[in-house]
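Figure 3 (text version): structure tokens given as input.
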């Protein structure tokens, strides 16, 4: 029950995060988690949508913690236009939106929160080199922990 309440809280935060409504055609919202504000809009493009598709293809497993959102770092909220059908061992459904969280903390690994048309939400770790994407969009900070989570023993 606590996990469900936490997920609902995250969803409400993502939906109500900013006073202004940003639609998919406007772009992806990049927000500073600690400040609690949108710091940049990345223009929505075929390249951005393709990048998200690569993230979804690189799922390494579900997040093992109830704490899906870091205390600091950045979050990217990206609507998929058109929605993308995904079928793998972690998720089956039509992905409508994702939120990527990146932190400076060495114990927090890049986490992708996936929202589907079927109203399911799942938090996963991805094994993808995010550095090029972050640099291209002028979001890279050397302090970010872009490492993959350790493999289960």
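Below: residues designed for each position.
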């Amino acid at each position: 029950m606590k996990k469900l309440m936490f997920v609902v809280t995250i969803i409400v935060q993502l939906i109500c995060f900013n006073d202004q409504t940003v639609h998919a055609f406007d772009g992806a919202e990049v927000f500073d988690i600690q400040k609690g504000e949108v710091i940049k809009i990345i223009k929505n493009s075929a390249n951005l949508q393709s990048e998200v598709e690569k993230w979804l293809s690189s799922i390494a497993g579900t997040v093992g913690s109830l704490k899906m959102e870091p205390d600091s770092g950045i979050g990217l909220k990206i609507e998929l236009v058109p929605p993308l059908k995904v079928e793998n061992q972690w998720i089956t459904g039509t992905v409508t939106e994702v939120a990527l969280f990146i932190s400076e903390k060495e114990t927090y690994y890049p986490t992708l929160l996936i929202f589907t048309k079927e109203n399911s939400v799942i938090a996963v770790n991805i094994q993808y080199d995010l550095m090029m994407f972050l640099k291209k969009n002028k979001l890279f900070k050397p302090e970010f922990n872009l490492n993959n989570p350790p493999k289960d023993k």
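DSSP finds three helices and seven strands in the chain.
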